[in-house]
UniProtKB/TrEMBL annotation:
Keywords assigned by UniProt, alphabetized: Coiled coil, GTP-binding, Nucleotide-binding, Nucleus
Residue numbers spanned by region Disordered: 1-58, 77-96
GO molecular function, one term: GTP binding
Protein name, entry field: Guanine nucleotide-binding protein-like 3
Organism the protein comes from: Corvus moneduloides (New Caledonian crow)
Segments of skewed composition (Basic and acidic residues): 77-86
InterPro entries referenced in this protein's UniProt entry, alphabetically: G_CP_dom, Gnl3_N_dom, GTP-bd, GTP-bd_ortho_bundle_sf, P-loop_NTPase, TRAFAC_YlqF/YawG_RiboMat
Compositionally skewed regions (Basic residues) per UniProt: 1-45
Statement: the UniProt record of this protein carries the keyword Nucleotide-binding: yes
Keyword Ion transport: no
């Protein structure tokens, strides 16, 4: 016997239920209209147009049409202006990118020229962050060049770090390459400071002159490094006058410059090493490579964030004389208000404030120093034989003694607390 098929439940509603739902909907709509009336929101009235009996109807219609046409023309004009502005920005961006590519290419050629022409290469490091200023590719190129080229590390701006920190870095770096502690000479009137700087200059000059004697010929000394580590300042200090242009802006040195120190020694100033943009923002900020004018505001803000998060908060508060802050954005906001750097409506101008902070960092107004790594492992290309080759021809005992005198007699411009 077949089972009877089950009938599907009907989807139809009973009249009572349907009427109840419709009533609720009507009540809801009535409630919405009532609330809208209370708020004063009225339904916009439809434009009735110009009545047929109105006088001068033709003129009024013509004026309305002309007004409509003028608005349309204004919209089109604004659209064209926007397109032109966009095109202008695009061309300017393309021009900047082309200039950067050209600068990078010229810089690379300039550095290669300096490396090829040099007997001794001075890699200048900022004492605040020596490892961040080293270029492994350059060091490998010099050590594996096959000739008799030497590489010296020059630890510049030693007055910006505490004495014990400087000693640690000298002990760390000298195990890989001969390292000279250095402070570029500036306009100073204090006799003690001048004497200390003369001792520093004498140390590097003596080292180069003694090496020249061992080679029994004149030598060419190439000076290389990242922007703002003080390459040109070192040459000017050794020469005793302004022989090379210097400045806080990156890329002041555009091509190789030759400066004669004496009959036996020529100094070759090179363009800055161009860091790979793929490096971390902190690395770029610490190497003073973020351009405050050419870079995007987001890059500048990110660079300031990296610096503020990396430096001592107490020191930042004391330097700028500001209260405690939760994050870099609040720091920039407080500082902008304090200095009156405001936009319309009293809104703090964070973008321009970030640029000024980045300039303070580049100009060494914000104090910072790093610690040497706990474990030292030289790169694969720097074998014991290569280390011995780099040291050959230099009086390392004299260098260590001179460095010790430099550390003891250096002019301190930073407190010994981090």
């Amino acid at each position: 016997m077949k089972r009877p098929k089950l009938r599907k439940a009907s989807k139809r509603l009973s009249c009572h239920k349907r009427y109840k739902i419709q009533k609720k909907i009507r009540e809801h709509h009535r409630k919405v209209r009532k609330e809208a009336k209370k708020r004063g929101h009225k339904k916009p009235k439809k434009d009735p147009g110009i009545p047929s009996a109105a006088p001068f109807k033709e003129e009024l219609l013509r004026e309305a049409e002309q007004r409509k046409q003028r608005l349309e023309e204004l919209k089109q004009k604004q659209k064209l202006n926007r397109q032109k502005e966009h095109e202008k920005k695009r061309k300017l961006e393309a021009k900047k990118n082309a200039a950067k590519i050209k600068e990078k290419a010229e810089g690379k050629v300039g550095i290669l020229q300096v490396l090829e022409a040099s007997d001794v290469v001075l890699e200048v490091l900022d004492a605040r962050d020596p490892m961040g200023c080293r270029c492994p590719q350059l060091e490998q190129a010099v050590t594996c060049s096959g000739g008799n080229k030497k590489l010296l590390l020059v630890l510049n701006k030693i007055d910006l770090v505490p004495k014990d920190n400087l000693e640690k870095w000298l002990n760390y770096l000298k195990k890989e390459f001969p390292t000279v502690a250095f402070k570029s000479a500036t306009m100073m009137k204090d006799k003690t400071m001048v004497r200390a700087l003369q001792a520093v200059l004498k140390c590097l000059l003596k080292l180069l002159q003694e090496y020249s004697k061992t080679q029994d010929k004149g030598i060419q000394v190439g000076v290389v490094g990242f922007p703002n580590v003080g390459k040109s300042s070192i040459i000017n200090s050794l020469k005793g006058k302004r022989a090379c242009n210097v400045g806080l802006a990156r890329g002041v040195t555009k091509s190789m410059q030759i400066v004669h120190l004496d009959k036996q020694t020529k100094m070759l100033d090179s363009p800055s090493i161009i860091a790979d943009p793929s490096n971390s923002t902190l690395a770029l900020a610490l190497r003073s490579i973020i351009d405050t004018e050419g870079s995007d505001s987001a890059d500048v803000l990110e660079g300031v964030n990296a610096i503020i998060n990396h430096c001592s908060k107490q020191q930042i508060m004391m330097h700028y004389n500001i209260p405690d802050f939760r994050d870099p954005e609040e720091f920039l906001s407080i500082l902008a208000q304090k200095r009156g750097m405001l936009k319309k409506g009293g809104v703090p101008d964070i973008e321009n404030m970030a640029k000024l902070v980045l300039c303070d960092w580049t100009g060494a107004r914000i104090k910072y120093y790093s610690q040497p790594p706990g474990f030292q492992k030289p790169p694969p290309y720097l074998t014991e034989q290569k280390i011995a080759e780099m040291q050959e021809g230099f009086n390392l005992n004299n260098l260590e003694e001179e460095n010790s005198n430099t550390v003891q007699g250096r002019t301190v411009t930073v407190t010994d607390s981090h």
